[in-house]
Write a structure and sequence with these properties.
Layout lengths: L42 E5 L9 H5 L5 E4 L2 E4 L9 H5 L5 E5 L3
Antiparallel strand pairs: 1-4, 2-3
The chain binds iron/sulfur cluster (2 copies).
One iron/sulfur cluster binds next to helix 1.
Length: 103
């Protein structure tokens, strides 16, 4: 995986003069690689590759781009998984189970 360039100088910033200039949704121009959300997790998704059909819906819906497609199979990068459980909800064959995060 490509590593983010360190230092805030490499992150573009947009300054808005007034609130009305802002877009209707929050945006970020920085790469998702800056957002290591793994420490937010209270639950951990675990993929059973024996049940997985490689549909990659979990990859498509993961909001943190934490699921990688490696040779057609999904793998979760726990540095970026925030434990939102969307992949568990979206998997059509219930191949993703939930475990409590032990810290
Ligand atoms: S959504 Fe479920 S079946 Fe589809 S790739 Fe992910 S784990 Fe596998
Ligand atoms: S729990 Fe959420 S953040 Fe973690 S892999 Fe699943 S969809 Fe992505």
């Amino acid at each position: 995986m490509k590593k983010p360039v360190s230092g805030k100088k490499s992150i573009k910033q947009i300054k808005f003069k007034k609130a009305g200039d802002m877009p209707p949704v929050a945006i970020s121009l920085a790469s998702m690689l800056y957002n290591k959300t793994g420490k937010w997790r209270s639950i951990r998704p675990v993929i059973d590759l024996n049940k997985c059909t490689s549909c990659m819906l979990c990859w498509k819906f993961c909001p943190d781009v934490a699921i990688k497609n490696i040779d057609g199979k999904p793998y979760i990068d726990l540095d970026y998984c925030k434990g939102c459980a969307i992949c568990i909800e979206e998997c059509p064959v219930k191949a993703v189970r939930v475990e409590e995060e032990k810290k």
